[in-house]
Structure formats: structure tokens, C-alpha cells
Amino acid sequence: MAKTKGKGAKKAAKNKKKQADTPRGKEAALGVKQAQQGDPTLDRDVAHAIASGQASKDDKKGKKGKKGKKDKKGKKDKQVGKVVKARVDPAASAAVEHAAPKVYDTPVDVEPVAKKLRPDEPMSEVLRVRRGFVLADFDPSSTPGFDEGRKEGEEALAAYAPEIGEWQERLFAETKGGGTRSVLLVLQGLDSAGKGGIVRHVMSHADPAGIKATSFKAPTEEERAHDFLWRIRKALPAAGQIGVFDRSHYEDVLVTKVRKLVPATEVTKRYAIINAFEREIIENGTQIVKVFLYISKDEQRARLMERLDRPDKRYKYTPGDTDNRAFWDDYMRAFQMMFNRTSTQLAPWHIIPANNKWFARYAVQQLLLERLRQMSPDWPVPDYDIELEKERLANT
Fold first, then answer.
1. Number of H helices, E strands in the chain
2. Nearest 5°: phi and psi at 348?
3. Of 363, 345, 304, residue with least CA distance to 142
């Protein structure tokens, strides 16, 4: 009996191999492989059914999760690219606007990444500019608060990206319930420091409608006719928005100081004016995250040369970029004074070593996430009867 069964098994295996060698068999095998590549945790039988179009609805919905378990509904989290969208624990939606942060379920992809990070050392503390900080002693190629390499840094950037989008949507939704809060990310740094790349990579999952990005160039004739904060106030984020400044009001204590565009006494006055301005907008509900992207002189030369070498980068270059390099030491002194006078308890500066673009992007992402988690914006409570509206809608 056992012998007969063995012959049958061999014959079945032989027939299966013949089928696999046919065009249709090869196509089916490819379909299974692609299905499993799309979801590495997918059972092979279910993958085969999906590939051949024979999977039931329950099979497709009941794919195994990361740990081989199904949720109660048998559904897997919808993915955005390779990253699973973050889920917010639906805690009491009636929480007050300034309630303590709720537990946030991070994307599944974050779990292996997070194990390599330092949860006990928030980036806001590691990178904060404190009294006695000396810019000349800071290494722009370092990666403080991060022990891993580029691969892990880019994985972390991708893994946490959906969380920023989730918080941004909640911040915007909060205004529907009367919320007035907003966030302002200030990016300061020399030419080619990576400010534009920060905006593209860190805000990649945010809804453009909830982002207000402003790039400040040399002031126009109209702007020069007003005080230096006039154009800044016009660009502040509205309630529910995340504002991003590519350069900022700090240009008026940097460029103006280095190029002697205004008297030194005026620059000195502006430090106090800026501190008062930032205190004012914080009291009005705007949280400020100030970031300085620090690159070396050699790194800047290499990046500017790349812009000249590449046709698709030349539009970013201006002869003034090279002219400014003659004032490098003057700018370093101006930056140091900026830190000394405007890194306050309410609005501290964060110094980002930016020779490694991947680290700069990851660090800024973490700074922004820390602030959003602290704010913990919540979904507004509806001002209508949900069950009544469901009944009305069902009858239409």
C-alpha cells in the first residue's frame, strides 16, 4: 500500500512539473511570485489563488499580518507604497485641545527601524543649541543621536513619513472644531545646505492643502518699504496648517550684518525684536521648530560644482553663490551671534549637521514629529447626530 502511494506521489509530482513547464504554468508561477513580492507574508496557496483570479473575497481580505495574525475584521492595513499608513488609536474624541499626547500606533515598517534608534534621546534634546554652544567645534559630517548608516536612515525616513501626514490632517481637522493651532518649521542655512530637499522629503506625505511653504529671497521694493517682519507676518501659517520657511526673518540679521546693508546698531535691535515676535506667535497658537542646516565649506563647493556640471541642476545656481563664499568666515560669526541671541527657551535653535543629506532629512523629520506628537491634535466632535444622519442618508 505504501509502495503504491509512493508511485502515485511520484507520478503527481511529474505531472505537476510538466504543467509548470507549460506557458500557462510559467505564467501562473510568475503570478504567485509577484503576489508574494507584493506581500511577503502571504500564504503561497492564497497567493496562487489571487494570481489565478480564484481567491475568494475572504481570502483576499484575510491575508496574514506581519506576525502571522489576522485582525478582527480580517483586513490588512492599506499600504502607501511599501509603507503601512499609521493608525491613530481612536481615544476619546471629546478630549480637550491641549490634552496630553495619546498613544500613537506607528506604521508596521517602523517597528524594526525603531529598535535601532535611541528612544531615550529625543532629537530635540540631542540637537538643541544651548548656552555655550560653539559652531566652530561642531562637525557637519556627524550624525548625533543616530548610530546607524545611510541605509537605515533612509529606511527610517520612509517608515515615519506617513505619520507626519496623519498628524497634519488631524491638525487641519481640529480647526473644524474651533482649534487655532499651527506649526512653523524654520529652515536656515547657506546656499546648497539642503533646505529645498528637506521640504520635498520630510513633507512628502502631507496634504499640500495643509502646507504653506514660503521661500524668502532678497526683499522687493514693496517689502523694503515696510519693517523687516512685514513680509514674514504675511507668510505665517493659518490655523491648522504647517508652515515651512525656506530662509526666514533671520536673513535680516545675517545677510544684512555680513554685507553691512544696515547699521550694526539696527542688527543688534533686531535680535530682541525677533525674540518678541516669536514669543507673540507662540502665544497665539503657532509652535515654532527652528532648524539650522550646517555644511562644511568643502561640501558646499562640491554641491555647487554639481549644479554647474548637471544641466538639470543649473537653474539652482547663481554667480552670487560663489561670491558669497568669500564671506564664509563672516557668515560663521553671524550664525554664532544668531545662536547666542535668539536660541531661547520658548524657541530654541536646533543645529543639524547636513553634510549627509539623508541624516539632515531624518533629523528634521524627527524634530517635526516630536512637536506634532506633543501637540497631539485630535479629530473634532461632530455637531450633528451621527445615527440620525446615517438613517437619513440610507433613505435617500
1. 17, 9
2. -75, 155
3. 363
Q: How far apart are CA 202 and CA 253, in angstroms?
A: 27
Which amino acid is located at 126 in the chain?
A: V
Residue 196, burial from CB neighbour count under 10 angstroms (0-12, 13-18, 19+): middle
345 vs 131: CA distance, rounded Å: 11
* pTM attached to this predicted model: 0.73
Residue 249, CA distances (Å) to 183, 185, 219, 230 in order: 16, 12, 11, 10
Nearest CA to 135 out of 291, 357, 351 is that of: 351
- How far the first Cα of the chain sits from its last, in Å, is 67
Long-range contacts of 110-115 (CB under 8 A, 24+ apart): 110/156, 110/159, 110/160, 110/163, 111/66, 113/152, 113/155, 113/156, 113/159, 113/160
Which phi and psi (to 5°) does residue 362 adopt?
A: -65, -45
The upper half-sphere exposure of residue 86, i.e. CA atoms within 13 Å in the direction of its Cβ, equals 25
Cβ atoms of residues 181 and 97 within 8 Å:
yes
Q: What is the CATH architecture of 88-375?
A: 3-Layer(aba) Sandwich (3.40)
Length of the chain: 396
* DSSP letter (8 states) at residue 251: G
Give the closest residue to 255 by CA, choosing from 346, 191, 212.
191
Distance from C-alpha of 352 to C-alpha of 363, rounded to nearest angstrom: 7
Secondary structure letter of residue 96 according to DSSP? -
Assess contact for 263 and 306: CB atoms under 8 A: no
Chain centroid to CA 121: 19
Determine what percent of the chain is predicted with pLDDT higher than 70. Answer: 71
Q: Tell me if 370 sits within 8 A of 122, measured CB to CB.
A: yes
Q: What nine digits make up the cell of 281? A: 506667535
Phi–psi pair at 244, nearest 5 degrees: -130, 120
3 state DSSP class of 56? coil
Helices 150-174 and 357-375: crossing angle, nearest 10°?
Answer: 30
Pinpoint the residues of the chain covered by CATH 3.40.50.300.
88-375
- 3-state class (DSSP) for residue 65: coil
Is the pLDDT confidence value at 369 over 70?
yes
pLDDT, tens digit (0-9, with 9 covering 90-100), for 191-232: 999 999 999 999 988 999 999 999 999 999 999 999 999 999
